[in-house]
Design brief:
about 100 residues; mainly beta; five-stranded antiparallel β-sheet; about 5% helix; about 35% strand; rod-shaped; binds zinc ion
Length: about 100
Amino acid sequence: MFIIAGIQPKRTRLDKRPATCPRCGQATASRQRVDQYFSFFFIPLFRVSKGEEVLWCDHCQMGFAPQRPGPTVEDLRPAPTCRRCGRPLAPDFNYCPYCGAPR
Ligand SMILES: [Zn+2]
Ligand SMILES: [Zn+2]
């Protein structure tokens, strides 16, 4: 039977930046949410249920459980360290508390 009205999934892309697919390793994945829409003649009319967020890969045509957000650039910036002894320094210290070297 040809169904013209019913529930159809609709994928909403949440993030324009491509993500790496955990399966094929290509940057063809993106964060998407799959909502269930009531559609009529294949036109989504209204949302029936709000779906879970998934990492959808266009290459594999598969959704994956979302990963935790990766570290941001801020997190990756190394903490300042002493030039003489290499120990981490608080950003507001002008002198190393361990060896007394100026920053
Ligand atoms: Zn993939
Ligand atoms: Zn030092």
